[in-house]
Hints:
By secondary structure, this protein is of the alpha+beta class. The chain has helices at residues 4-8, 17-32, 39-46, 52-60, 65-76, 143-146, 179-195, 213-220, 323-332, 335-345, 357-382, 390-410, 417-426; strands at 84-94, 104-108, 113-127, 132-141, 203-205, 225-230, 236-239, 253-256, 267-273, 276-287, 294-303, 309-316.
Amino acid sequence: MPDIMLVVACLSQCLNPTTLRQLSRVTEAMLAMTGRVTMRGIARWAGKGGSYRTIQRFFTTSRSWATLQWVLIRHHLLDRDDVILMGGDDVVVTKSGKQTYGLDRVFSSLYGKRVPGLDFLSLSLISVKRRTSYPVMMEQLDKEHTAKPQEGSKKKSHGKQGRPQGSKNRHRRDVALSPYLRFVQETIKRFLELIGDHVKVQYFVFDGALGHNDALQMVRQLGLHMISKLRHDAALYVPYDGPYAGRGKRKKYDKKLEYCHLPAEYLQASFVEKDIETKIYQTHLWHKKFADLLNIVVMVKTNLKTQAMAHVVLFSSDLALPYDQLIDYYRLRFQIEFNFRDAKQYWGLEDFMTVKQTPVYNSANLAMFMVNVSHAVMRPMRTHWPEFSVTDLKAWFRSRKYVVETLKKMLSEMPEPIFIDPAIVQMPILGWVNYVVNPPLYGECIDFDQNPSYD
């Protein structure tokens, strides 16, 4: 049976003993509890030292969750020989009522429409070796961050076409960032300052929402390379390498790329799987709204039975990045969605009922913190049971809670753990999704320091 204190002990360098004890109580209660994850529910499962007033004080006290996340990840989850990416995405938490801080109508991709809720920006470290995402920062987006700039009054046309007289050319690298992009840039900057030189991050991965020049320049200003997706109908042009015409500016763009007739010299790989033919093309192309040449990868899928075709256009600012790594890195971005799923399904991201700014911030970040805690606890256990899931983990802690509380009521004095371990380790099997014949005894096969520390 894993001990939570062994997992959170590394946080003693940034938490005082009282706060660390409260955090361990809350963490163990969330691992064992059933139903909605609220302050009242946590207090009911926390036991001694976790009264409702204590839980209230825990949620109303400001703390640096990003530092806690980073220390936990650095100590338990990172490998020195790993390639680490930085990924980001927005998550919408639906809420009812009118009093919750930051409540607004935001677009949710799950519902396909605008819903009342809270919008958060999450930044994570993505492990290429482990194929897993570890959330680090979770910041709430306000209305001022997502507000669109007001359009000025349109002047009436006098029949003249072309650019206004006296207007000057604008360099595409000198972009005016929107409030949202400025917020993302500031968050990434604090992220990089937090991790320092412990981990070398070279790529920032985001979905198609940042597939434009302003976002690319925002990321390049921070010294990172961008990996994202373009629209399926993005107008891309082949670089011109013909002779100089002899007058004027040298020609920059050649013919426009046609996705239905991609040149054979761009083809990098081709394979067929379940009657679906996949062809992967890579080349360097221009986009008229981007300042720099782009590393473009086009994946074309064809149904051999119906001849239906579809394609995806990925891009990166790193011209030397091979097509297989570019595709792999962009696919790993989806691991962030699994973090959101676990946080909502198991750790209360959709359940919290706090309404003030600090409790809302603590509730959202606590849910993401539990995602990392579950990774830290399950990693050594998955070396023996590869299919061990979060449901099995919660069943294990819940069963142990039942046994310990029952023995407390039945016995006048609690025996030593070594005498009750055989009874404790047999109970979790009843609630496991993945049945294990011989579970280990207390502490057996559980090594939380199996990875080299970054401290």
